[in-house]
Amino acid sequence: MSNRFYDFSASLQQLEQQNLYRRRRIVDGPQAVELQVEGRRLLNFCSNDYLGLANHPDVVAAFRSGADRYGCGSGAAHLICGHSSAHHALEQELAAFTGRERALLFSTGYMANLGAISALVGRGDYVFEDRLNHASLLDGGLLSGARFQRYRHADSEDLQAKLARAQGRALIVSDGVFSMDGDVAPLPELVRLADACQAGLLIDDAHGFGVLGRNGGGVVEHFGLSAEQVPILMGTLGKAFGTFGAFVAGSAELIEYLIQKARTYVFTTAMPAAVAEATRAGLRLLQAESWRREQLQALIGHFRRGAEQQGLQLMDSATAIQPLVVGDSGRALAASRQLADLGFWVGAIRPPTVPAGSARLRITFTAHHSLQQVDALLAALGKVLR
Ligand SMILES: *Cc1c(COP(=O)(O)O)cnc(C)c1O
């Protein structure tokens, strides 16, 4: 081809040389602890299906009967004719679950964050983000056109100093549980600063819902914070809920505002109603079956004790995300490959997903893992990281 625009080979080669090239593995069959991956059976330690609901019979049955009742496509955006009684019921159930007046469904978490942040702040405003926030939160801040500032990870003093210099409306944005580190944001501090500075506060609890809190209410339940203290609460449905999509929960007025203003809400097709029906089943299980959270905590404790005995360098995480930082991308990639040869699937997370020099193995647990499987993983990690 002579048109140089289409020549991507140098960029691709560079990624390969830097050990930053990404490849997809083809999975056959449903999400489970054991996955069939390109002719191999691998023990899955990289999924976000924390409660093991992605292939739960009740969730699958609700999806099927949802398809029987509503068909497949939703036909249009929510504001045209795509908002079904299934979507509406799920929104009401999510509002009740989160203890908020209303909830609003988005088609993905990425879109929820882009849409909400860019609706809430704009030119002349400020947005303050933890530097380890999920890409969708950072991108939402950049898209908004507000003055964009990152504060040091989980550092409320740095945030306070930055807030003190801001003149105008400000929004503070943070992950509840950090997706690549597994640690929890200093939420009570963020709440205090937001109140003191009359700033907005948006918490993305993609990895806290279902996992943290007695009832799976996530990081706000973990800290015992009210709807007034965390007025904008976002969650995703593709992780512990076991399905797909996302929501923002808050006051009736906030939700009404987002319906008018969030462009990723207004200008996109509604998720299939059957997905909403499946999610209603996922939400019921997430709330009712607390044994899943208890099993997860048992696995996490078991893993951390075993890793410590082996002298593995753990991060400060009490959640289902247990990363082992190895630093170099090539080393992380090689470790992940060796683990696969031993029958374990653990993802190598590299820049730009994590800061340069902090490539890691991101180990995640689900309620369906057994203690024996965790022991087997620990033995394999011992071999590979020695
Ligand atoms: C996964 C994730 C998202 C994106 O959600 P999707 O529904 O997968 O688009 C947003 N924020 C955080 C913190 C996440 O981990």
UniProtKB/TrEMBL annotation:
Catalytic reaction list: 6-carboxyhexanoyl-[ACP] + L-alanine + H(+) = (8S)-8-amino-7-oxononanoate + holo-[ACP] + CO2
NCBIfam families for this protein: bioF
Lineage of source species: Bacteria, Pseudomonadati, Pseudomonadota, Gammaproteobacteria, Methylococcales
Single GO molecular function: pyridoxal phosphate binding
Record-stated family: Belongs to the class-II pyridoxal-phosphate-dependent aminotransferase family. BioF subfamily.
Residues annotated to bind substrate: R22, H134, T353
Assembly description: Homodimer.
SUPFAM superfamilies: PLP-dependent transferases (SSF53383)
List of residues that carry N6-(pyridoxal phosphate)lysine: K239
Residues involved in pyridoxal 5'-phosphate binding: G109, Y110, S179, H207, T236
Enzyme class, spelled out: transferase
GO biological process, one term: biotin biosynthetic process
Protein role: Catalyzes the decarboxylative condensation of pimeloyl-[acyl-carrier protein] and L-alanine to produce 8-amino-7-oxononanoate (AON), [acyl-carrier protein], and carbon dioxide.
EC identifiers of the protein: 2.3.1.47
UniProt keyword list: Biotin biosynthesis, Pyridoxal phosphate, Transferase
Name assigned to this protein: 8-amino-7-oxononanoate synthase
Cofactor(s) named in the record: pyridoxal 5'-phosphate
Gene name of this polypeptide: bioF
Organism: Methylomonas koyamae
Domain Aminotransferase class I/classII large, first and last residues per copy: 42-381
